[in-house]
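Internal tracking record. Fields below are filled automatically when a chain is submitted to the structure queue. Please do not edit lines marked as system-generated. If the sequence contains nonstandard residues, flag them in the REMARKS field before resubmitting.
Queue: standard
Priority: normal
Entity type: single polypeptide chain
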Amino acid sequence: MSFGQGVMAVLQMKDGLIRIVASGANVTKREGEPQLEDFQGFFDKTVPEGGRLHDPVWLARFHLHHRGVNQYSNDRLFVAGDAAHVHSPAGGQGMNTGIQDAVNLGWKLAAVIRGERQASFLDSYHVERYPVGQNLLKTTDRVFEFMSSTNPLFIFLRNILLPWILPWALGNSNLVRKAFRAMSEFDIMYRDSDIVATASDLKGANVRGGDRMLDGKIEGPDGQKYLLDLIDPESYHLFLFSGVGIVAATAGDLQRAEANFLEKSPVAAKVHIIFGQKPNGQSGYIDVNAILHKELGFSQPTYVLLRPDSYIGHIGPFSALDGLISWLQ
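SYSTEM-GENERATED OUTPUT FOLLOWS
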């Protein structure tokens, strides 16, 4: 990708072909489809080494749209993906956002169809996903404007300052981590949703109801795997974390908590016991080096009810498990 008076992207494709995308403000305007020489002129200005473009197989002009619906659901009608938000490809987040729309809606539809939830449960789809789509429209529009604008100020920032700032930014691990979470959309949360909750007496935890669950290595009878390998999109999953140190729950405590939940819960869920340290001959998974307990802030015994989309539906200390059962009703 090169910046000059605008932006040009050169993408390697199979069979020796390349795809060139150029901002429209920098390509000769003419009636009908663009010609090869239009791209050649901008290519010569933008690419230092230059080169000759030849044998085009497809030349086209496309216009970016910036549109979004104001309601993701209306009675029995639902929209997702490009039907809900159309925007610049800047950032490469359109596909991921559309997939997350579908996942968010899909498990909720399944719960209603199975009779586990009332139809009003589907209202949460708009509540959770509409803000995500709106934020996507805003950010992609700003990024594309910065990349393609011929405004002298933007050109100065893009071509002079950015090459100096980027190496510093990429060398800062905290900034890189935040950028990764934003680009991967792992930082999306639904804390304001009506269908998630956090027990009021939860202390010290780094996550809340509506957050995406952190992943990490666990060890069980079949070797090491990742925590989220245990879940599937067909049901809720209740994770019982033992905690660490002198306040950690015993194997008996964890088993009683599991039995109590399975007996009283109105919603089907698979239960997984996660020990902070290796138990004495008891079944369950071990949090390798207690890293997950540390990153999640689970020093005390803590439960996490995970939704089928890997987001936390409810979280709290073991003392709040009866409150979780009431909440599910």
